[in-house]
Design goal:
The chain has helices at residues 2-29, 34-38, 109-112, 124-128, 165-173, and strands spanning 47-49, 67-75, 81-86, 92-98, 103-108, 116-123, 143-146, 150-158, 176-179. It is an alpha+beta fold. A five-stranded antiparallel sheet has the order 1-2-8-4-5. It has a four-stranded mixed sheet with strand order 7-6-3-9.
């Protein structure tokens, strides 16, 4: 009886370990992840509008047909990115994912509190290399640290009614995701008088 109970317990534990390892490893070994599916139709460090979701014709699973969707496939190896997304009439959201589809940051128009969601995306090493400036606060600019040098930014704009879809698409068409060409803004410090 003890031998049977021991065998059952070991079998359940071994099955649990195999299940857990396969579930955790599947996103890394899958060939049709979101990044791979979007690579042929997107440009690196640029916003690409996706076609509207239709039944049986979606690039990504669970796409909502009430949202206009755009993607920025980013690569930070050349330097930080500047992301600018004008907010739509109803609702706008921006989500950040690593190359392996791990979500690490999200912001929407309500939390941004502005007419434009504007932020800098960079790696932690690039962030640490920025010059320290006491006069530039986190309220002046939003800096997001990406855990990986490549990944996806998903931009969504809600069309509250089907007739408002062109407006939602227009707000995403005005979005930009481009490498920073100029160094981050720093305030000039006053010189001491002699």
């Amino acid at each position: 009886m003890i031998r049977l109970a021991f065998t059952i317990i070991v079998g359940v534990l071994l099955g649990g370990v195999v299940h857990l390892v396969s579930v955790l490893a599947l996103p890394r070994i899958g060939t049709q992840d979101a990044y791979s599916r979007l690579t042929p139709i997107t440009t690196v460090n640029a916003v690409t509008q996706l076609p509207l979701a239709e039944p049986g014709n979606s690039l990504m699973p669970f796409m909502d047909p009430a949202f206009a969707t755009a993607i920025c496939r980013y690569d930070l190896s050349e330097g930080p990115l500047k992301l600018t997304v004008p907010v739509s009439q109803a609702y706008t959201s921006v989500s950040f994912y690593t190359r392996n589809e791990l979500a690490y940051y999200a912001i929407n128009d309500r939390s941004a509190g502005k007419k434009v969601i504007e932020l800098d995306l960079m790696t932690e090493a690039q962030h640490n290399a920025l010059p320290e400036d006491e006069e530039v606060t986190s309220a002046d600019r939003l800096i997001i640290d990406s855990p990986t040098p490549t990944g996806l930014i998903v931009l969504k704009a809600l069309a509250a009614e089907p007739g408002l879809m062109p407006q939602a698409q227009a707000s995403l068409n005005a979005a930009s995701c481009r490498p920073q060409t100029e160094p981050p803004a720093t305030a000039e410090k006053p010189r001491a008088k002699r």
